[in-house]
Amino acid sequence: MPNPSRRVAVVGLGPIGRKVVQALDHGIDGLVLAAVSVQDPAKHGDFLAGLKRPPAILPIDDLSAAADIVIECAPSKLVRSIVIPFVSRGKTAIVLSVGALLENEDLIALAKQNGGQIVVPTGALIGLDAVTAAAEGNIQSVRMVTRKPLNGLAGAPYLVDNNIDISDITEPLKIFEGTAREAAKGFPANLNVAVALSLAGLGPDRTTLQIWADPTVTRNVHRVEVESDSARFSMTIENIPSENPKTGRITALSVIAYLRKQGAALRVGT
């Protein structure tokens, strides 16, 4: 007897949420799109009506009764309200606003206590498998340098709070240097990738980061350097921005890849 399909809910229908919903609607073995939650259902009516199997549209509070897995593609302020109902029932929450986990670390304990799971997909960064493997030994340092086009950093709280104007710069400008925890506070919509890296390795207070506003690039560029007792490695990725310049196209694809792994006969990568 085949296992029954696990039900999936998606919160948020921006560029990432829509891509994930379309993939689920086209079919992923072992999964079925059960529900979505959006702030303005009328805004997404045509998109949802065009799906082969339109899902239920539910408030966030009702999703955990309708689904086994929730995928958060929403503003970071909603992470807590999305995650708690699922992990407290032993279910799975896939979190893309990873920076919010640093301000809600009790969610991890809640998931452990109730047999739930919080999943941070690889997202916009390569090499998290290597970092998690190295962390089983001893990592000495993890350093990341990020370069972003100007529109990918516009409105970041760190820039506003420090009166940093990047609108007219003509050459790369280093706008931040510090820890991943500090970056998550100052750039909540931009640096989830740095938080994911920190959670895979040394933690948010020992993972160091530089952020450059760079008018010469059109992609979100991340370079990571790791020193450990098992390997020294570096990696660079240049992500093409999605319709939302703060996020890369590959973020949605990494969520879809994770979902496909759940029912795959061959699973590559840890």
Q: Any idea of the CATH class of the largest domain?
A: Alpha Beta
| CATH fold name of the largest domain | Rossmann fold
Radius of gyration, whole Å: 19 Å
Count of alpha/pi helices: 10
What is the average per-residue confidence, as pLDDT, rounded to a whole number?
A: 93
| Strand elements, count | 11
Based on the structure given, which CATH architecture of the largest domain is correct?
3-Layer(aba) Sandwich
Pattern of helices and strands: EHEHEHEHEHEHEHEHHEEEH
| Structural class estimated from helices and strands | alpha/beta
CA-to-CA gap between the ends?
27 Å
Strand order of the largest sheet: 3-2-1-4-5-6
Number of structural units classed as domains: 2
Uncertain regions: pLDDT < 50 for 5+ in a row?
none
Query: Into which percent range does the helicity of residues fall?
Result: 25-40%
Beta percentage is 15-25%
The main pleated sheet reads as:
6 strands, parallel
* Gross geometry: globular
CATH superfamily of the largest domain: NAD(P)-binding Rossmann-like Domain
